[in-house]
Amino acid sequence: MTHAHDLPPRSTGAAAAAPHPPATPQGGASRRLTAGRLGGDLVVETLRGLGATTVFGLPGQHALGMFDALRRSDLTYIGLRVENNAGFAADAYGRVTGEAAPLLLSTGPGALTSLPALQEAAAASAPVVAISAQVPVAGLGGGRRGYLHELRDQQASFRDIVKSVHPVRSASQIPSAIAAAWRSALTPPHGPVWVEIPQDVLTAPTTLPPVTAPDATPDPLPPRPELTALAAHLLTQAERPAVVAGGGVVRADASGKLRALAERLSAPVVTTFGGKGAFPWEHPLSLQSWLEDRHMTDFLEDADILLVVGSGLGELSSNYHTFAPRGRVIQIEADLGKLESNHPALGIHADARPALQALLERVGERTDPDAADRVREVLARIRSRIEAQDLTTEQDLLRSIRRALPADSPGFWDMTILSYWAWSAFDPRRPGTMHSAQGAGGLGYAYPAALGAAVADRTRPVLAVSGDGGALYSIAELATAKQHALPVTWLIVDDGGYGILREYMTEAYGRPTGTDLAGPDFVALAESFGVRATRTTPEGLERDLGQALSSGVPSVVVLKANPRMFAATHV
After folding, report:
1. In terms of Cα–Cα distance, which of 226, 221, 232, 222 is closest to 361?
2. Alpha-carbon distance 69 to 174, whole Å?
């Protein structure tokens, strides 16, 4: 494992070191700092006291005080090649562990490059604690002092994305600010937070005692009992109840409670794309995830009581806002801003786990011998519609991936046609094993996120799926995979461009523009990083992918194919 002391003194990312040495705490001429603890040590000690074992990031001039402190700690440092990719890796680490993932960044360009990753973390409720350097204190306040990387208001760039912002202006503020950020990140709904510390505060020697164990216990979010009592009554008396299970169920580790409730109520369950795995795919009450299909939308609209757990019923979860429920909606949501934001409901502001437990304690047994038949009927209609579109290749590809991927191995899917298929049609087998960038929809998520998941658990292989366009966003991280020997297999589906945008533009305007891409030989490129790679075909995908996943080393599998999207049915 490579730690901070193995790193070169200068960054190669967006926060590349300046052509002059770092400033002293006074901002004057460079000098070598004397041995001892610095402000950066307070950052590292606080993280360690909070229980962190691993940090992600990328060094830069203003952040070197933090990175020097890593050398004196037992924290594992995973350095990526681009700040945005470091953010995606931290996001995935937070998703699969349920722990807050520290992300260390430098100022200005380095910090700003992480914005898309933090937006995805916010959309997916992933707990990331981003700690960024800032220019020296003398350059703050919009004074235009001309420091390298200086922004008039760096916090403003992040305030609209993260859950909370925690500025630091002196060393004594560091432990409390990071502890407050940690608590915020892990309080439902989970999400990214932002801590900002000036360079001279990080590099100044400190005489403060070592940080031990700051209190950062997350605040619970239980439901109000009068609301769950009413919800339980409505569900018990319902004639045609149904459940929409979102990502909040997975984040709250509430899949078991959801299943128990659905079985007690004989209520069919559909999972959103972010909630994949929240309910067993082959369960007799499982409606799976066909939310873009009008047959599914009609079924949910017909429910007299619709329980929505851990979802805001946003664009994708509501079939592009065409969903119009005729019955009463009960919505359990930890994000207060999403409560009743799209549909009137009995809104219960709560984390999914305690809310489902409260319902289990109050609902009566409800028997509906026809529920499973109605589930089979709607799924049969969806299958018939798909089969009429001559899309056998696409379904075969998904089946090949499913057979090759171990049931408990996580998969990370970029914004590409095969991923759009997977949202609706892929069986995740286990809660928390299918992750995608559909929260914010940015390209380049899958591979660095898969690396973060592999850091969290090296005992099982991890899959990443990208198109050739999205792969080029993350290609530098092949070096990260090789450096840290991470067991990630990257499936790159090469269709010569942005395939889904090509389809959208052709459908809307008759012809695409800007969607065809010249690309590299991905196999040769991967091998140049020292990563094993192979070309495959649709017929050989299961074999080649299975071999790569079982190898225990970083691998790339390249599939030349042009999958097509199934016809939209939201109109």
Report:
1. 232
2. 14
Task: Determine the Cα–Cα distance for residues 280 and 245; give it in Å rounded to an integer.
Answer: 11
Strand order in the sheet with 241-245: 269-271, 241-245, 305-309, 328-333, 346-349
* Model confidence pLDDT, tens digit, residues 199-253: 999 999 999 999 998 989 999 999 999 999 999 999 999 999 999 999 999 999 9
From the centroid of its chain, how far is CA 241? Answer: 30
What is the C-alpha separation between 216 and 211, in angstroms, rounded? 13
- Domain locations in the chain as residue ranges: 4-203, 225-380, 389-560
Report the alpha-carbon distance of residue 422 to residue 440 in Å, rounded: 17
Q: Which fold has domain 389-560?
A: Rossmann fold (3.40.50)
CATH topology of domain 4-203: Rossmann fold (3.40.50)
Q: What is the DSSP letter of 570?
A: -
* Fold match flag (4-203 vs 389-560): yes
Helices 499-509 + 417-425 axis angle, to 10: 90
- The pLDDT > 70 percentage for the chain reads 92
CATH code, 225-380: 3.40.50.1220
Rounded CA gap, 171 and 207, in Å?
Answer: 10
User: Strand, helix or coil at 559?
Assistant: strand
Q: What is the pLDDT of residue 20?
A: 36
Burial class (CB in 10 A: 0-12, 13-18, 19+), 540: middle
pLDDT tens digits, residue range 501-559?
Answer: 998 889 889 999 999 989 999 999 999 999 999 999 999 999 999 999 999 999 999 99
